[in-house]
Amino acid sequence: MTEPTGPRTFRLAYVPGVTPAKWVRIWGERVTDVRLELVPTAAPGSDAVLRAGDADAGLLRLPVDRTGLSVIPLYAETPVVVVPKDHVFAAVDEVGLDDLADELVLHPLDDLLEWNVLPGTPAKERPATTADAVELVAAGVGVVIVPQSLARLHHRRDLTYRPLRGAPESNIGLAWLEDATTDVVEEFIGIVRGRTVNSSRGRTTAPAEPARKPAKKPAPQRGGASGKSGKPAKRTAPPARGRRKRR
């Protein structure tokens, strides 16, 4: 069977709100023989794209089912509450969970925040997606709690958001199948972890150290060679001229 001769591809899945642009740029500069392909995927059940073989690694919103997966937590996102611009919360810098007691809080089906008890008054029906919930908030129906990156993703001029004190954070992690840790996966792990191009791990090897130039010999000092003591050598007097004999 003939193996494909085309360029290799590294497929990176990512969920809404995640911005992989920085890592994609570094990949393009460092790994020129493997093309990186971005694979958008929904947050709930995002590990399925890895298990189906549709992506080699993924920037996923945790938690996910870690069975058979390797997961590196990367960063945590601040939770915020999205409200209309004329809402009372728009006048403060931060909102607490107790402040939501009298608010209708929308809970979209794709929400992955780990709540023990959802604050406020829950809506009778759950919106299908975060985007749908934001549309309802814009229509004056309730408020919604999301990670800050999703509030930015679904930004509208008639809405704003404020940090929500006491709410669970949303964590982003890099995941891949344990039995599919290839060299290109290792390379991307190194990029995400900030490993430099000269690191001993990954596909890229450090450039050879340039050969050192031989040291230049010191130029001879003026006035003759020096002795061991460092003093300049004495000058030799010219021989004395003799007198002619009289005949």
UniProtKB/TrEMBL annotation:
Gene3D superfamilies: 3.40.190.290, Periplasmic binding protein-like II (3.40.190.10). One of its GO terms (cellular component) is protein-DNA complex. Residues 23-194 form the LysR substrate-binding domain. InterPro entries: LysR_subst-bd (IPR005119). Residues 197-247 are annotated as: Disordered. GO terms for molecular function: DNA binding; DNA-binding transcription factor activity. Keywords: Activator, DNA-binding, Transcription, Transcription regulation. It holds the Pfam family LysR_substrate. It comes from the Bacteria. Belongs to the LysR transcriptional regulatory family. This is LysR substrate-binding domain-containing protein. It comes from Speluncibacter jeojiensis.
